[in-house]
Amino acid sequence: MNSPFISLLVLAGIAIFLILRLRNVLGTRDGFEKPPVIQPERRADTRRDFEVIEGGPDRDITDHVEDGSDAAKALAAMKLAEHGFSVSEFLGGARGAYEMILMAFEKGDVEQLRPFLAEDVLETFETVIAQREEQGLSIDASFVGIRELTLQGASFDRGTSTAEISVRFVAELTSVVRNSDGEVVEGDPTEIKRQRDIWTFGRDMGSSNPNWVLVATGG
Q1: Biggest CA-to-CA distance, the chain
Q2: CATH topology of domain 67-218
C-alpha cells in the first residue's frame, strides 16, 4: 500500500472524528447561551389568546342566555346605556320582588303593590282583589321558596332606552281560601303547591329611578 493512499485514509479518519466531535458539541448546551428567539408566529398566537380572554363573551350575560341571541344583544345594549347594570344583580332583585309582590297580592295589600307595578298591571290586580273582597273571601298564604328562576327573554328600545326582561319563576307556597266565617273553601294549609309564572319587568335605562316595575304577567 503506497504512502499517498495511507495519507488519504489518515486525513479521512481525522475529518470523520472532527465531524462527530462538532455534532456532539452542538447537541449540548453548557454554560452561557443566548435566550431562544421567539418566532413571530408564536408572538401572534400569544396576542390572539390575550384578545380572546380580554374581549370574550360577557359571562354576566352568557351565564343566563345564549351568546349571540337576541336576548344577549338586548342585555349588552342595556349595559351600554347604563354601565352599572348587572344581569345577575337584576335577577337577585327579581327574586325578592317576586316574593314581595306575590304575597302582597295574596293579602290584598294594594298600597304595597303600587310602587312596583305598571299602571295596567296594578289595575288588573286591584280588580281581582276587589272581587275577592266583594265575595267575602280572603287568602291565607305562606311563601316557601323559589325552586327555579331563569331569564326567559329581553328586549331594548334604543330610541326610548326602554328595557324589558322576562323571568320565569317556579315557586312553592301554601295557600288556602277562606270565606267570611273563616272556613276553608279551597286549598289545604299543609299542602305545598308549585306556582309557575313568567313576569316581565320594565325600566328606562339611565333613569335616576333604579326600580324596575312589573309590566306584564303570564304563566
Answers
A1: 136
A2: Nuclear Transport Factor 2; Chain: A, (3.10.450)
